[in-house]
Design a protein that fits this description.
By secondary structure, the protein is an all-alpha fold. The chain has helices at residues 10-32, 34-37, 48-51, 55-60, 63-73, 80-104, 113-116, 123-149, 153-161, 163-183, 201-228, 234-262, 273-293, 296-299, 302-332, 340-363, 383-411, 422-430, 466-469, 482-493; strands at residues 438-439, 449-452, 514-515.
Length: 518
Protein backbone atom coordinates (compact mmCIF):
# COMPACT_ATOMS: atom_id res chain seq x y z
CA UNK A 1 0.00 0.00 0.00
CA UNK A 2 1.40 3.34 -1.04
CA UNK A 3 1.53 6.18 1.39
CA UNK A 4 -0.59 9.10 0.27
CA UNK A 5 1.15 12.41 0.53
CA UNK A 6 -0.76 15.70 0.55
CA UNK A 7 -0.83 17.39 -2.83
CA UNK A 8 1.37 20.48 -3.03
CA UNK A 9 -0.62 23.66 -2.84
CA UNK A 10 0.18 27.34 -2.59
CA UNK A 11 -0.46 27.39 1.17
CA UNK A 12 1.49 24.19 1.81
CA UNK A 13 4.50 25.46 -0.14
CA UNK A 14 4.29 28.82 1.64
CA UNK A 15 4.17 27.06 5.01
CA UNK A 16 7.22 24.95 4.12
CA UNK A 17 9.21 28.02 3.08
CA UNK A 18 8.29 29.90 6.27
CA UNK A 19 9.24 26.97 8.49
CA UNK A 20 12.51 26.41 6.65
CA UNK A 21 13.46 30.07 7.14
CA UNK A 22 12.40 29.88 10.79
CA UNK A 23 14.41 26.73 11.53
CA UNK A 24 17.51 28.18 9.87
CA UNK A 25 17.10 31.38 11.88
CA UNK A 26 16.70 29.55 15.19
CA UNK A 27 19.77 27.36 14.56
CA UNK A 28 21.80 30.42 13.58
CA UNK A 29 20.57 32.33 16.65
CA UNK A 30 21.60 29.58 19.10
CA UNK A 31 24.93 28.97 17.36
CA UNK A 32 26.02 32.62 16.97
CA UNK A 33 23.99 34.41 19.65
CA UNK A 34 21.37 37.15 19.72
CA UNK A 35 23.74 39.88 18.54
CA UNK A 36 24.49 38.11 15.27
CA UNK A 37 20.94 36.97 14.49
CA UNK A 38 18.98 40.05 15.55
CA UNK A 39 19.17 43.84 15.43
CA UNK A 40 18.71 44.08 19.20
CA UNK A 41 21.17 45.95 21.41
CA UNK A 42 21.73 46.99 25.02
CA UNK A 43 19.89 50.23 24.22
CA UNK A 44 16.97 48.38 22.59
CA UNK A 45 16.89 44.83 24.02
CA UNK A 46 13.22 44.06 23.35
CA UNK A 47 12.15 43.78 19.72
CA UNK A 48 9.33 41.97 17.92
CA UNK A 49 10.07 38.70 19.74
CA UNK A 50 8.78 40.41 22.88
CA UNK A 51 6.47 43.02 21.35
CA UNK A 52 4.73 40.60 18.97
CA UNK A 53 5.41 37.00 19.99
CA UNK A 54 4.96 37.57 23.73
CA UNK A 55 2.73 40.58 24.32
CA UNK A 56 0.40 39.90 21.40
CA UNK A 57 0.47 36.11 21.75
CA UNK A 58 -0.65 36.29 25.37
CA UNK A 59 -3.29 38.93 24.62
CA UNK A 60 -4.90 36.91 21.80
CA UNK A 61 -5.35 34.02 24.21
CA UNK A 62 -7.39 36.14 26.62
CA UNK A 63 -10.69 34.88 25.22
CA UNK A 64 -10.09 31.55 26.94
CA UNK A 65 -10.73 32.69 30.49
CA UNK A 66 -13.55 35.06 29.49
CA UNK A 67 -15.56 32.45 27.59
CA UNK A 68 -14.94 29.67 30.13
CA UNK A 69 -16.04 31.95 32.95
CA UNK A 70 -19.20 32.77 30.99
CA UNK A 71 -20.03 29.10 30.43
CA UNK A 72 -19.06 27.43 33.70
CA UNK A 73 -19.12 30.15 36.35
CA UNK A 74 -22.05 32.27 35.12
CA UNK A 75 -23.75 29.10 33.83
CA UNK A 76 -24.65 30.52 30.38
CA UNK A 77 -24.71 27.13 28.67
CA UNK A 78 -25.78 28.50 25.29
CA UNK A 79 -22.16 29.59 24.79
CA UNK A 80 -20.84 26.07 25.33
CA UNK A 81 -20.07 25.56 21.58
CA UNK A 82 -17.57 28.41 21.82
CA UNK A 83 -15.69 26.89 24.75
CA UNK A 84 -13.40 24.36 23.10
CA UNK A 85 -12.17 26.42 20.15
CA UNK A 86 -11.46 29.29 22.52
CA UNK A 87 -9.56 27.10 24.98
CA UNK A 88 -7.62 25.54 22.09
CA UNK A 89 -6.67 28.99 20.80
CA UNK A 90 -5.56 30.06 24.28
CA UNK A 91 -3.54 26.88 24.86
CA UNK A 92 -1.74 27.11 21.51
CA UNK A 93 -1.12 30.81 22.10
CA UNK A 94 0.59 30.20 25.43
CA UNK A 95 2.63 27.24 24.19
CA UNK A 96 3.92 29.27 21.25
CA UNK A 97 4.62 32.22 23.56
CA UNK A 98 6.85 29.94 25.67
CA UNK A 99 8.62 28.67 22.53
CA UNK A 100 9.22 32.23 21.31
CA UNK A 101 10.47 33.27 24.75
CA UNK A 102 13.04 30.46 24.75
CA UNK A 103 14.38 31.78 21.44
CA UNK A 104 14.55 35.34 22.78
CA UNK A 105 16.23 34.60 26.11
CA UNK A 106 19.98 35.09 26.19
CA UNK A 107 20.44 31.89 28.23
CA UNK A 108 17.29 29.80 27.65
CA UNK A 109 18.80 26.83 29.47
CA UNK A 110 18.40 28.80 32.72
CA UNK A 111 14.66 29.32 32.29
CA UNK A 112 14.00 26.78 35.04
CA UNK A 113 15.53 29.19 37.59
CA UNK A 114 12.17 30.93 37.95
CA UNK A 115 10.85 27.74 39.56
CA UNK A 116 13.51 27.44 42.25
CA UNK A 117 14.88 30.99 42.63
CA UNK A 118 11.95 33.05 43.84
CA UNK A 119 11.91 36.83 43.55
CA UNK A 120 8.44 37.86 44.62
CA UNK A 121 9.27 41.56 44.13
CA UNK A 122 9.68 41.07 40.38
CA UNK A 123 6.81 41.52 37.91
CA UNK A 124 8.56 39.11 35.55
CA UNK A 125 8.57 36.46 38.27
CA UNK A 126 4.80 36.80 38.64
CA UNK A 127 4.28 36.69 34.87
CA UNK A 128 6.52 33.65 34.53
CA UNK A 129 4.71 31.65 37.20
CA UNK A 130 1.25 32.66 35.96
CA UNK A 131 2.09 31.69 32.38
CA UNK A 132 3.39 28.28 33.49
CA UNK A 133 0.39 27.58 35.70
CA UNK A 134 -2.21 28.91 33.24
CA UNK A 135 -0.73 26.89 30.37
CA UNK A 136 -1.12 23.80 32.55
CA UNK A 137 -4.70 24.77 33.35
CA UNK A 138 -5.53 25.26 29.65
CA UNK A 139 -4.03 21.86 28.83
CA UNK A 140 -6.22 20.23 31.45
CA UNK A 141 -9.29 22.14 30.22
CA UNK A 142 -8.77 20.89 26.67
CA UNK A 143 -8.08 17.26 27.64
CA UNK A 144 -11.82 16.32 27.55
CA UNK A 145 -11.68 16.78 23.76
CA UNK A 146 -9.14 13.94 23.57
CA UNK A 147 -11.17 11.82 25.97
CA UNK A 148 -14.27 12.31 23.85
CA UNK A 149 -12.41 11.57 20.61
CA UNK A 150 -11.02 8.28 21.93
CA UNK A 151 -14.14 7.45 24.01
CA UNK A 152 -12.40 7.49 27.39
CA UNK A 153 -15.60 7.84 29.39
CA UNK A 154 -14.07 7.45 32.86
CA UNK A 155 -11.53 10.22 32.38
CA UNK A 156 -14.11 12.41 30.68
CA UNK A 157 -16.42 12.17 33.70
CA UNK A 158 -13.54 12.75 36.11
CA UNK A 159 -12.43 15.96 34.41
CA UNK A 160 -16.00 17.14 34.18
CA UNK A 161 -16.13 17.10 38.00
CA UNK A 162 -13.01 19.26 38.41
CA UNK A 163 -13.65 21.58 35.47
CA UNK A 164 -15.17 24.46 37.45
CA UNK A 165 -12.20 24.72 39.90
CA UNK A 166 -9.89 24.67 36.87
CA UNK A 167 -11.86 27.48 35.23
CA UNK A 168 -11.74 29.59 38.41
CA UNK A 169 -7.97 29.07 38.66
CA UNK A 170 -7.63 30.00 34.99
CA UNK A 171 -9.59 33.23 35.41
CA UNK A 172 -7.44 34.31 38.36
CA UNK A 173 -4.12 33.44 36.71
CA UNK A 174 -4.99 34.99 33.36
CA UNK A 175 -6.25 38.20 34.94
CA UNK A 176 -3.02 38.52 36.93
CA UNK A 177 -0.54 38.20 34.11
CA UNK A 178 -2.59 39.95 31.40
CA UNK A 179 -2.40 43.08 33.53
CA UNK A 180 1.14 42.41 34.75
CA UNK A 181 2.47 42.59 31.19
CA UNK A 182 1.38 46.22 31.25
CA UNK A 183 3.07 46.66 34.62
CA UNK A 184 6.42 45.84 32.98
CA UNK A 185 6.35 49.28 31.37
CA UNK A 186 5.48 51.22 34.50
CA UNK A 187 9.17 51.31 35.43
CA UNK A 188 10.16 53.31 32.33
CA UNK A 189 8.30 56.65 32.67
CA UNK A 190 11.19 58.55 31.05
CA UNK A 191 11.54 56.09 28.15
CA UNK A 192 8.01 55.20 27.06
CA UNK A 193 6.36 57.99 25.08
CA UNK A 194 3.67 59.92 27.05
CA UNK A 195 1.00 58.88 24.52
CA UNK A 196 1.24 55.32 25.82
CA UNK A 197 2.80 55.66 29.26
CA UNK A 198 0.24 55.70 32.05
CA UNK A 199 -0.24 54.34 35.52
CA UNK A 200 -3.35 52.68 34.06
CA UNK A 201 -1.31 50.49 31.67
CA UNK A 202 -2.15 47.23 33.51
CA UNK A 203 -5.88 48.03 33.22
CA UNK A 204 -5.55 49.01 29.55
CA UNK A 205 -3.65 45.80 28.75
CA UNK A 206 -6.31 43.69 30.42
CA UNK A 207 -9.31 45.34 28.73
CA UNK A 208 -7.77 45.41 25.25
CA UNK A 209 -6.71 41.75 25.62
CA UNK A 210 -10.29 40.83 26.49
CA UNK A 211 -11.57 42.44 23.27
CA UNK A 212 -8.81 40.81 21.20
CA UNK A 213 -9.37 37.37 22.70
CA UNK A 214 -13.09 37.49 21.89
CA UNK A 215 -12.33 38.73 18.37
CA UNK A 216 -10.15 35.64 17.88
CA UNK A 217 -13.24 33.49 18.47
CA UNK A 218 -14.97 35.11 15.49
CA UNK A 219 -11.80 35.06 13.39
CA UNK A 220 -11.05 31.37 13.86
CA UNK A 221 -14.70 30.32 13.56
CA UNK A 222 -15.03 32.07 10.19
CA UNK A 223 -11.88 30.46 8.78
CA UNK A 224 -12.73 27.01 10.17
CA UNK A 225 -16.23 27.19 8.71
CA UNK A 226 -14.81 27.98 5.28
CA UNK A 227 -12.10 25.32 5.51
CA UNK A 228 -13.98 22.41 7.12
CA UNK A 229 -17.61 23.41 7.17
CA UNK A 230 -17.35 23.47 10.98
CA UNK A 231 -18.09 26.64 12.81
CA UNK A 232 -20.06 28.28 15.58
CA UNK A 233 -23.67 29.31 15.28
CA UNK A 234 -23.84 32.78 13.78
CA UNK A 235 -26.24 33.97 16.49
CA UNK A 236 -23.62 33.35 19.18
CA UNK A 237 -20.91 35.12 17.19
CA UNK A 238 -23.21 38.11 16.76
CA UNK A 239 -23.73 38.26 20.53
CA UNK A 240 -19.97 38.09 21.06
CA UNK A 241 -19.51 41.01 18.67
CA UNK A 242 -21.87 43.10 20.81
CA UNK A 243 -19.78 42.29 23.87
CA UNK A 244 -16.62 43.29 21.96
CA UNK A 245 -18.25 46.61 21.04
CA UNK A 246 -19.01 47.37 24.69
CA UNK A 247 -15.50 46.39 25.79
CA UNK A 248 -13.97 48.61 23.08
CA UNK A 249 -16.18 51.50 24.18
CA UNK A 250 -15.09 51.12 27.81
CA UNK A 251 -11.45 50.94 26.71
CA UNK A 252 -11.73 54.07 24.56
CA UNK A 253 -13.44 56.11 27.27
CA UNK A 254 -10.86 55.18 29.91
CA UNK A 255 -7.90 55.57 27.57
CA UNK A 256 -8.87 58.96 26.15
CA UNK A 257 -9.93 60.33 29.54
CA UNK A 258 -6.60 59.27 30.99
CA UNK A 259 -4.73 60.99 28.16
CA UNK A 260 -6.64 64.22 28.79
CA UNK A 261 -5.83 64.10 32.50
CA UNK A 262 -2.12 63.56 31.79
CA UNK A 263 -1.96 66.26 29.13
CA UNK A 264 -0.74 63.75 26.53
CA UNK A 265 -3.14 64.76 23.75
CA UNK A 266 -0.84 67.55 22.58
CA UNK A 267 1.60 64.91 21.32
CA UNK A 268 -1.03 63.30 19.08
CA UNK A 269 -1.21 66.25 16.71
CA UNK A 270 2.39 67.50 16.87
CA UNK A 271 3.28 65.88 13.54
CA UNK A 272 5.48 63.19 15.11
CA UNK A 273 5.53 59.58 13.96
CA UNK A 274 4.25 58.54 17.41
CA UNK A 275 1.13 60.68 16.92
CA UNK A 276 0.50 59.13 13.49
CA UNK A 277 0.83 55.60 14.82
CA UNK A 278 -1.52 56.41 17.69
CA UNK A 279 -4.18 57.70 15.29
CA UNK A 280 -3.88 54.57 13.15
CA UNK A 281 -4.20 52.41 16.26
CA UNK A 282 -7.22 54.19 17.69
CA UNK A 283 -9.19 54.95 14.52
CA UNK A 284 -8.70 51.69 12.60
CA UNK A 285 -8.23 49.32 15.51
CA UNK A 286 -10.75 50.55 18.08
CA UNK A 287 -13.22 53.17 16.88
CA UNK A 288 -14.01 51.53 13.51
CA UNK A 289 -14.68 47.98 14.80
CA UNK A 290 -16.69 49.38 17.71
CA UNK A 291 -18.96 51.25 15.29
CA UNK A 292 -19.24 48.19 13.03
CA UNK A 293 -20.22 45.86 15.86
CA UNK A 294 -22.84 48.29 17.15
CA UNK A 295 -24.48 48.14 13.71
CA UNK A 296 -27.18 45.44 13.55
CA UNK A 297 -26.77 44.93 9.80
CA UNK A 298 -23.05 44.24 10.22
CA UNK A 299 -23.75 41.73 12.99
CA UNK A 300 -26.14 39.85 10.71
CA UNK A 301 -23.40 39.37 8.11
CA UNK A 302 -20.69 36.74 8.48
CA UNK A 303 -18.35 38.81 6.35
CA UNK A 304 -19.13 41.88 8.45
CA UNK A 305 -18.33 40.04 11.68
CA UNK A 306 -15.09 38.74 10.23
CA UNK A 307 -14.09 42.18 8.98
CA UNK A 308 -14.78 43.74 12.39
CA UNK A 309 -12.81 40.97 14.11
CA UNK A 310 -9.83 41.55 11.80
CA UNK A 311 -9.84 45.28 12.63
CA UNK A 312 -10.07 44.52 16.36
CA UNK A 313 -7.07 42.20 16.13
CA UNK A 314 -5.24 44.82 14.10
CA UNK A 315 -5.84 47.38 16.85
CA UNK A 316 -4.50 45.00 19.51
CA UNK A 317 -1.40 44.26 17.44
CA UNK A 318 -0.80 47.97 16.84
CA UNK A 319 -1.19 48.80 20.52
CA UNK A 320 1.33 46.23 21.71
CA UNK A 321 3.85 47.13 18.99
CA UNK A 322 3.40 50.81 19.75
CA UNK A 323 4.10 50.24 23.44
CA UNK A 324 7.04 47.88 22.88
CA UNK A 325 8.68 49.54 19.85
CA UNK A 326 7.22 52.84 18.64
CA UNK A 327 6.90 54.36 22.10
CA UNK A 328 10.42 53.29 23.15
CA UNK A 329 12.40 54.11 19.99
CA UNK A 330 12.94 57.84 20.46
CA UNK A 331 14.17 57.67 24.06
CA UNK A 332 16.51 54.76 23.24
CA UNK A 333 18.29 56.97 20.72
CA UNK A 334 18.98 54.03 18.39
CA UNK A 335 17.52 52.67 15.20
CA UNK A 336 15.78 49.31 15.42
CA UNK A 337 14.39 47.43 12.45
CA UNK A 338 13.85 43.68 12.89
CA UNK A 339 16.31 41.48 11.02
CA UNK A 340 14.97 38.98 8.52
CA UNK A 341 15.69 36.23 11.04
CA UNK A 342 13.52 37.91 13.67
CA UNK A 343 10.70 38.18 11.13
CA UNK A 344 11.20 34.57 10.01
CA UNK A 345 10.95 33.22 13.57
CA UNK A 346 7.80 35.28 14.23
CA UNK A 347 6.14 34.10 11.01
CA UNK A 348 7.10 30.50 11.85
CA UNK A 349 5.42 30.78 15.24
CA UNK A 350 2.22 32.14 13.64
CA UNK A 351 2.27 29.47 10.94
CA UNK A 352 2.76 26.73 13.54
CA UNK A 353 -0.25 27.96 15.52
CA UNK A 354 -2.51 28.03 12.46
CA UNK A 355 -1.33 24.60 11.32
CA UNK A 356 -1.84 22.92 14.69
CA UNK A 357 -5.26 24.55 15.08
CA UNK A 358 -6.20 23.24 11.63
CA UNK A 359 -5.19 19.69 12.59
CA UNK A 360 -7.07 19.87 15.89
CA UNK A 361 -10.21 21.23 14.21
CA UNK A 362 -10.07 18.45 11.64
CA UNK A 363 -9.42 15.45 13.87
CA UNK A 364 -10.78 16.43 17.30
CA UNK A 365 -14.30 17.45 18.41
CA UNK A 366 -13.46 21.14 18.67
CA UNK A 367 -16.42 22.65 16.81
CA UNK A 368 -20.03 21.45 16.75
CA UNK A 369 -20.66 18.90 14.01
CA UNK A 370 -23.14 21.05 12.15
CA UNK A 371 -23.90 24.74 12.31
CA UNK A 372 -27.62 25.16 12.38
CA UNK A 373 -28.70 28.01 10.22
CA UNK A 374 -31.95 29.86 10.60
CA UNK A 375 -33.32 32.49 8.29
CA UNK A 376 -30.87 33.28 5.55
CA UNK A 377 -29.15 36.60 6.05
CA UNK A 378 -27.59 38.11 2.92
CA UNK A 379 -23.97 39.07 3.50
CA UNK A 380 -22.79 42.58 2.90
CA UNK A 381 -20.09 41.18 0.62
CA UNK A 382 -20.30 38.19 -1.68
CA UNK A 383 -19.35 35.11 0.34
CA UNK A 384 -16.80 33.82 -2.16
CA UNK A 385 -14.90 37.10 -2.15
CA UNK A 386 -15.26 38.16 1.49
CA UNK A 387 -12.32 36.15 2.80
CA UNK A 388 -9.98 37.35 0.06
CA UNK A 389 -11.10 40.94 0.53
CA UNK A 390 -10.61 40.85 4.31
CA UNK A 391 -7.23 39.15 3.99
CA UNK A 392 -6.17 41.66 1.35
CA UNK A 393 -7.20 44.53 3.60
CA UNK A 394 -5.31 43.03 6.55
CA UNK A 395 -2.21 42.60 4.38
CA UNK A 396 -2.51 46.20 3.23
CA UNK A 397 -2.79 47.42 6.81
CA UNK A 398 0.28 45.43 7.84
CA UNK A 399 2.25 46.84 4.90
CA UNK A 400 1.16 50.32 5.97
CA UNK A 401 2.36 49.63 9.52
CA UNK A 402 5.74 48.35 8.33
CA UNK A 403 6.16 51.38 6.07
CA UNK A 404 5.28 53.61 9.02
CA UNK A 405 7.85 51.89 11.21
CA UNK A 406 10.45 52.56 8.51
CA UNK A 407 9.48 56.23 8.49
CA UNK A 408 9.59 56.33 12.29
CA UNK A 409 13.11 54.94 12.27
CA UNK A 410 14.18 57.43 9.62
CA UNK A 411 13.12 60.41 11.71
CA UNK A 412 14.30 59.00 15.06
CA UNK A 413 18.10 59.34 14.97
CA UNK A 414 20.54 58.79 17.83
CA UNK A 415 21.42 62.48 17.94
CA UNK A 416 17.78 63.25 18.57
CA UNK A 417 17.78 61.57 21.96
CA UNK A 418 17.94 65.01 23.55
CA UNK A 419 14.52 65.66 22.03
CA UNK A 420 12.84 63.21 24.41
CA UNK A 421 9.23 64.19 25.07
CA UNK A 422 8.93 67.01 27.57
CA UNK A 423 6.01 65.28 29.26
CA UNK A 424 8.15 62.25 30.08
CA UNK A 425 10.85 64.51 31.49
CA UNK A 426 8.31 66.34 33.62
CA UNK A 427 7.11 63.04 35.04
CA UNK A 428 10.68 62.10 35.93
CA UNK A 429 11.40 65.48 37.53
CA UNK A 430 8.29 65.36 39.68
CA UNK A 431 9.06 61.87 40.99
CA UNK A 432 12.81 62.48 41.45
CA UNK A 433 14.11 62.01 44.98
CA UNK A 434 17.78 62.81 45.71
CA UNK A 435 19.84 60.74 48.16
CA UNK A 436 21.15 62.46 51.24
CA UNK A 437 24.42 64.45 50.83
CA UNK A 438 27.50 62.25 51.07
CA UNK A 439 30.28 63.36 53.44
CA UNK A 440 33.77 62.13 52.65
CA UNK A 441 36.36 61.54 55.35
CA UNK A 442 38.67 64.55 55.60
CA UNK A 443 42.39 63.81 55.34
CA UNK A 444 45.08 65.71 57.22
CA UNK A 445 46.27 67.64 54.17
CA UNK A 446 42.74 68.48 53.02
CA UNK A 447 41.96 72.23 53.03
CA UNK A 448 38.35 71.47 53.94
CA UNK A 449 35.61 68.85 54.12
CA UNK A 450 34.11 67.52 50.83
CA UNK A 451 30.36 66.97 50.60
CA UNK A 452 28.84 65.57 47.42
CA UNK A 453 25.35 66.88 46.69
CA UNK A 454 23.24 65.31 43.90
CA UNK A 455 21.18 68.47 43.44
CA UNK A 456 24.18 70.40 42.10
CA UNK A 457 25.16 67.60 39.70
CA UNK A 458 21.80 66.54 38.19
CA UNK A 459 19.87 68.29 35.47
CA UNK A 460 16.34 68.06 36.91
CA UNK A 461 14.76 68.88 33.53
CA UNK A 462 16.24 65.72 32.02
CA UNK A 463 17.53 63.47 34.82
CA UNK A 464 19.51 60.43 33.81
CA UNK A 465 21.20 58.44 36.57
CA UNK A 466 23.09 56.38 33.99
CA UNK A 467 25.22 59.37 33.09
CA UNK A 468 27.22 58.65 36.24
CA UNK A 469 26.13 55.28 37.57
CA UNK A 470 26.23 53.17 34.43
CA UNK A 471 29.94 52.48 34.80
CA UNK A 472 31.69 55.73 35.60
CA UNK A 473 31.57 55.54 39.37
CA UNK A 474 29.39 55.09 42.41
CA UNK A 475 29.86 57.89 44.94
CA UNK A 476 29.47 56.65 48.48
CA UNK A 477 31.09 56.97 51.88
CA UNK A 478 34.22 54.85 51.99
CA UNK A 479 35.73 52.87 54.86
CA UNK A 480 39.21 53.20 53.39
CA UNK A 481 41.82 55.48 54.91
CA UNK A 482 41.39 59.21 54.48
CA UNK A 483 44.43 59.64 52.25
CA UNK A 484 43.52 56.65 50.03
CA UNK A 485 39.94 57.83 49.76
CA UNK A 486 40.99 61.35 48.81
CA UNK A 487 43.13 60.03 45.99
CA UNK A 488 40.41 57.65 44.78
CA UNK A 489 37.69 60.28 44.85
CA UNK A 490 39.86 62.92 43.25
CA UNK A 491 41.38 60.82 40.47
CA UNK A 492 39.07 57.89 39.76
CA UNK A 493 35.67 59.42 40.46
CA UNK A 494 35.34 63.18 40.52
CA UNK A 495 38.33 63.52 38.20
CA UNK A 496 36.47 61.83 35.35
CA UNK A 497 34.51 65.06 34.88
CA UNK A 498 36.60 67.60 36.82
CA UNK A 499 39.51 67.35 34.39
CA UNK A 500 39.65 70.91 33.12
CA UNK A 501 37.54 70.11 30.05
CA UNK A 502 34.08 69.04 31.21
CA UNK A 503 34.43 70.96 34.48
CA UNK A 504 37.14 72.74 36.51
CA UNK A 505 40.26 70.73 37.21
CA UNK A 506 40.19 69.31 40.73
CA UNK A 507 44.00 69.55 40.99
CA UNK A 508 44.03 73.27 40.23
CA UNK A 509 40.97 74.46 42.16
CA UNK A 510 40.75 72.87 45.60
CA UNK A 511 38.17 75.38 46.78
CA UNK A 512 35.78 74.14 44.10
CA UNK A 513 35.15 70.99 46.14
CA UNK A 514 36.55 71.49 49.62
CA UNK A 515 34.48 73.59 51.99
CA UNK A 516 36.34 75.48 54.66
CA UNK A 517 35.92 74.00 58.13
CA UNK A 518 36.31 77.40 59.73
Amino acid sequence: MKLKLPKPSFWLITLAVIWAAGIISVVYRFYNGLGAATNLSDQFPWGIWIGFDILIGVALAAGGFAVCATIYIFNLKEYRPIGRPTVLTAFLGYVLVIVALLVDLGKPYNVWHVITMWNHHSVMFEVGWCVMLYTTVLFLEFLPAFFERFRMVFWQDLFHRILIPLVIAGVILSTLHQSSLGSLYLIVPTKLHPIWYSGMLPVFFFISALAGGLAMVIFESYLSARAFGKGIEHRLLAQISRVIAVVLMIYLVLRLQNMVERGAFKHVFDGSSEGIFFLIEIILGYITPMMLFFNARIRESKAGLFFGAVLTLFGLVMNRLNVAITGMARSAGVEYLPSWMEVAVTLSVIAAGLFIFRLAAKYLPVFPREEKTGVHQPPLIEAGRSGKLAMGLLAGLLILVLAGFGYSLAVTRPNQSADAPQAAQAIAAESLEFPAPIEFVQSEESPGQVIFNHESHVDTSAPNCKNCHAGLFSIRASKAGAAAQTRAVGHDQCGTCHNGEKAFNYEESCDGCHMSSE
